[in-house]
Design brief:
Blueprint (H helix, E strand, L loop, with lengths): L1 H20 L11 H14 L2 H6 L1 E8 L7 E2 L2 H9 L3 E14 L2 E13 L5 E15 L2 E11 L10
Parallel strand pairs: 1-6
Antiparallel strand pairs: 1-2, 3-4, 4-5, 5-6
């Protein structure tokens, strides 16, 4: 019986160790990821395409706004959109970072307005998720997803 308890204790310690390495990112130990996320959001909202692309992996893909299919974006296309009066006025809240070794999934809510070229402003709250990978040059955004938060969902508790 004693061996069982010792084996169970070893198992709990091993599981605890794996949870420590695969878990929420502590702000003191985020290896600069919070700074990278802050920088890319600031660059996105200010139309600073050069700074934005310092944090983007060339293979980045994502889903955004009115797109139905997986999208890839180039630096030139980003610059053209910004030059065509694309405007972002959003505030981020409730950022969460979940780490898996050198990969992190970031989630947050974005509230405010986005104006696409030739379009009226969209206002509301969006859910944002992104996948970041730590490379030699630092954190790089490899995938993103933005979708409007459905605020008119009614729940039937019956």
């Amino acid at each position: 019986m004693r061996r069982f308890y010792i084996a169970a204790l070893i198992l709990v310690v091993a599981i605890s160790a794996s949870v420590v390495t695969t878990g929420a990112v502590d702000e003191r130990d985020d290896r600069g990821l919070n700074d990278a996320v802050d920088a890319i959001i600031k660059a996105w909202m200010s139309g600073d395409v050069d700074t934005f692309w310092e944090y983007v992996d060339p293979t980045m893909s994502g889903f955004s706004f009115r797109q139905d299919a997986l999208n890839t974006v180039s630096k030139d296309a980003s610059q053209a959109i910004c030059d065509a009066e694309y405007q972002v006025r959003l505030a981020e809240r409730d950022r969460r970072l979940q780490t898996y070794g050198d990969t992190v999934v970031a989630t947050a809510y974005l509230h405010g307005s986005i104006t696409l070229p030739g379009s009226t402003a969209m206002r509301g709250t969006w859910r944002m998720s992104s996948v970041w990978v730590l490379r030699d040059a630092g954190w790089r955004l490899v995938h993103y997803h933005h979708s409007r938060l459905a605020s008119d969902v009614v729940s039937d508790d019956a």
